[in-house]
Structure formats: C-alpha cells, structure tokens
Design a protein that fits this description.
Two copies of one chain form a homodimer.
Chain A lengths: L8 E7 L3 E8 L4 E8 L7 H20 L5 E6 L2 E3 L4 E5 L4 E4 L1 H9 L3 E5 H12 L8 E6 L3 E7 L2 E3 L27 H5 L1 H12 L6 H6 L5 H25 L3 E5 L7 H14 L7 E4 L6 H15 L1
Parallel strand pairs in A: 1-4, 4-8, 9-12, 12-13
Antiparallel strand pairs in A: 1-2, 2-3, 5-6, 6-7, 9-10, 10-11
Helix pairs in contact in A: 1-2, 3-9, 5-7, 7-8
Chain lengths: ~300, ~300
C-alpha cells in the first residue's frame, strides 16, 4: 500500500566503500525514514549487486513509510560522469565505466538522478549548509583521501567528473606518495596521511588524525605533522582562491571535526599567501555526514522540478 | 546619414594603457572599419576622458561606414566587475570604482556591454579561436603581467572580477616580487619578468622576452631564466587543470609568440606533474591581438541577442 502524501518524496542513496545508506526525504528535506546495508564485496558483478542492494533499500523505505517514492538520488565515489550516468573509474569500488545510474533506474523503475559523493555533498553545503548565501563556493573534503567540489555562480561544476581532483598536486612537503610522485596534497593533508605520517615519524600507531590533533600542544611530532597538513591546505586554497575567487571555502570530511585546531592555522597561513586576491570566508562544514544524503535528495528533487 | 545594412553592427572598444582601439563589427564578425587614438593621460578625470574618447571613436566608425551602430562592446584592464559595469581597481589606469560602462553608455546613447580585456579575449579564443569546440577552457595571457580567463561549460566565469588573478601565487622559484612576497607567478613567468630576470642575471639589457627566446640555444643564462618561466607556467597549470579539468589551455599574450619554444617544454613539464588528472590540450592563441576586439564584439552581439 503506497500513498502520495502531498509533495514529492525522493530516496537518497549514498554508496560508500563499506555501507550503502538510504533515506526517504520529502520536499522540505525532512528525512522520514532511513535504511542501510553493507556494500557488496568487490568482484566482477559488484556494480549490479550494488544496484540490487540500492533498489532493495528504496523498496524498504517505501514499505516502511507507506509513501510513494517519486525519484531516486544516487551518489557514488570515484570519477563520476554525472551527465552520462557512469562511474568512469573508482579505485575504492574497483569500477571502470560502470553505468550505475541506469542499473539503479532499471531496478527501481524510477527516474534516477546521479552524482559524485563529494560534489553532491558540496552542493548540499552550498544550498543548505555552511556556504548558504554564497554566490560561489569550494567544498574541500579531507578524509581518507581528499577532493574538492565547486559550485560556481550557483552551478555545480563537474568537469566531466574530473573537477576538484586535487589529491596529486605538489604542495611542497617532501613526502612520497602512492602515485610515485612526491609532496602530493593527499599524501600530506588528508586525515589518513596525518595519522600515517605521525606513526612513520614516531613509531607509535594512532587511530586517526583526531588522535594526532589531541597531541598538538604536547607532542612536537604531532605539531610538525599537523603543520605540514595545514601548509598543504593553505597552498591548495591559495591557488584555488586566486583562480576562482570563491566567496566561501567549506572544509569538510573527517578532518574538519578538528574545528578551530585546523581552521585557525589554515586561515592564518592562507592570509599570508594572498595579496591582491579576494580572501574567502573559511568555515567548517555544517551538515556533517548528512551532506551526502541531503545532496542526493537535492539532485532528485531538482530533476523532478525539471 | 546612417543606414541599417541587414544585420546588427556593433562597435568593439578595447581600452589599453597606451591606446584605445575601436572596430565596427557586423553579425558575421567581419571588421568593417577600425579607428584608434591615444589613451588620455592619467589624472582624476581619466575615466570620463576615456569615455569621451571611446564615444568619439564610435561616432567616427558610424560616419566612416554610413552604418548604424546598434551597441557597444567595451573592454578594459584591471579588476572588472562586469555585472555592475565597474572597474573595481586598475593599477595601470589608476582607477578605483569607476563606472566605465555607464560613462560610455551615456555618451553614446547605445546599449553597452562591458568586460575585462583578458577574460573577453579568452571568450573570443573559446568561441572563435584556439579553444573552439572545447567544453571548458582556460586562457592564460602572459604579457607585461599575467592573468587567466576561464570559460566553464560555455560560460565565462568572472568571480566578481577576481577570477584568474594568478599573478601572485608562489611557483617555487626564489624571486622577489613587487608585492613583497617571493616566487610569484608573475615575477617569474610573465614576458616582462623574463626580460627583467635575464638582465639582472647578465647585466645585458634586452628589448623583451623574444630576445631571450632567441638566445636559448647558445646562452645558458637565457636558458635558465626561460626554464624558470616554464616551470612557473607548468605549476600554475597543474593546479588549474587538477581543479577544473578544462579540455583546452590556450596560451596567449606576447610570450605566446615564442610558439613551440614555450609550449613544448611547458607541455613536457606539465605531463610530469599530472598523474590521475585529465590532461588538457595545450595550444597557442589563434586570434593574436584581434582577440580583445572580437571578444568585445561578441559581448555586444550577445547582449543584442538578449
């Protein structure tokens, strides 16, 4: 039994490396139900199995609420060509040229909007979160890896799926990277890099960047690793801001939970790198891990609105 | 006596530090007449005097051809807020918050489209020149100073007049800059910087970067200065391409006349800096010093087309 309760309801589906999260979201962006499942393991059929799982979650959301689902918003990691509905490649998922949008649309029988997880989260921060009211904004997600999303004059800029891929540009810190280059932004300033570099330097394993952040005032090794990460972020932002003059830079991802411990030194170092450029407002993400889901809902609602 | 000859005619006016160039351009982008005059000298009334001179040139174009001018396209240097029609500031013209668009519209009585000289030239290269057929492109003008123009998904991105201001970002070459920082892109890779750095290194004055380019194979000082400039360009492009994934990078301005002597080493060094990113096509500008005029005509024709 399904019923239409006034406005549209969309299913937001966020595919991650370990979990698929789904939420039913109404036109007011209220989440009315949530479901999640483990991501099917790697293998040649992983894209179809993920699509099967996503379709099951969408059906469960409809069953649980008795609401009709009008559209799906699907977001995935990797190099995502939103227009074609294809994951061009994804290291974490082991995908190349997988038509995820159509796989989900076929299984659900619903219009399916499609996007990149970080870019979609950036869109949510722009429309609903820390960059609301900005004309142009950059969202920099610092987690296991890192990536940026750009909303320019109100439009999400995709670059064919390649925009914001800043992970492997040299920020001037002598640190070898898995890509065989040195000084890559991701190898210095991602949350994973901070933990790894601290352990490499001290021999002491840590759970993550948060543990390093907690040691900043007492442990010179923690402070040095943190300062390198801050430097990398400031360099990346100096180039980005000089090129695009965005009003607002939103720092998101796990590392943003460090709050002022991260933002204050980044802001200070960035100010020293800018002269004639327009300085952006630098803020921490406001939506946390809801950004992906809300962004996916926005994609679906936008598509329904035509 | 003016007559309307079929389609629209627009007056393209390109205001530079030494000359104001004007051209009458028809809908097919054919230049049917050209006029130029010296730019009025610096002073408190310079903006109004420039507008007077521009209006005189527009009247002369109409008189010379007997055609009615339907609109003006006006391009100027500096930090240009195209939407407000204002030069926010221009060091070379000595302007702050000058409403150039309205000054010219009042004097000509014509609809006046307004833009930044480099960004407008970039638009012309995108629509008619070296980046024609691209979806997104970057135009990097290397002359006395340097600046970039961005056309993203077909739209010129202005950033409130600040987009593409790459001159004062550190490219990692220890060279002091007039802005009191060190290693600024403009201080290393502009045409003026190449000439200045060669003279500082050798004590030998040169006429410009072209003279340094001519010495590359025989003079190690010329080669060293050139290599630094190439390095700066490659670093700036690595960041820009990683962030925006443009299809095409067009190198323009006086330095682009060096052709393969510039483009080949830049392409080689850039390839070494990119890994997972999408590599752009790197080309020299095709329109030369006509780009500003054609771009101004495009702005005016676009405005007429609504």
């Amino acid at each position: 039994m399904t019923q239409r309760s006034g406005g549209a309801n969309v299913a937001a589906v966020d595919v991650g490396g370990t979990q698929i999260k789904a939420a039913l979201v109404d036109e007011d962006l209220t989440v009315t139900a949530e479901r999640r499942c483990s991501t099917p393991v790697a293998g040649p059929d992983r894209a179809r199995e993920v699509a099967d799982a996503a379709a099951r979650l969408v059906a469960e959301l409809a069953d649980a609420t008795g609401r009709r689902v009008d559209a799906v918003g699907l977001v995935v990691p990797g190099i995502v060509d939103a227009e074609r509905g294809v994951v061009v490649r994804s290291g974490s998922m082991g995908w190349r040229e997988e038509p995820l949008r159509d796989l989900v649309a076929e299984r659900t029988g619903l219009p399916t909007a499609f996007g990149h997880d970080v870019r979609t989260a950036g869109l949510a921060e722009y429309r609903l979160g820390a960059a609301a009211g900005s004309r142009s904004a950059m969202f920099l997600a610092l987690g296991t890896g890192l990536a940026a999303a750009l909303v320019l004059d109100g439009r999400l800029f995709e670059g064919g799926g390649f925009a914001g891929e800043l992970g492997h540009v040299d920020v001037g810190v002598p640190e070898p990277c898995r890509c065989d280059m040195s000084g890559c932004f991701e190898a210095v300033s991602s949350a994973a890099a901070i933990a790894r570099r601290y352990t490499a330097r001290t021999g002491r394993p840590v759970d993550g960047a948060a543990e390093v952040a907690a040691l900043l005032e007492t442990d010179p090794d923690a402070a040095a690793v943190w300062a390198d990460a801050v430097h990398g972020i400031a360099v990346a932002l100096a180039w980005s801001v000089s090129l695009l003059a965005v009003d607002t830079v939103v720092i998101g991802g796990g590392l943003s939970l460090a709050g002022p411990k991260l933002l204050e030194p980044v802001e200070k170092e960035l100010a020293g790198l800018l002269t004639f450029q327009r300085s952006p407002t630098l803020v921490a993400a406001a939506l946390g891990d809801r950004a992906g889901c809300l962004g996916a809902a926005l994609l679906a609602l936008d598509a329904l609105a035509g």
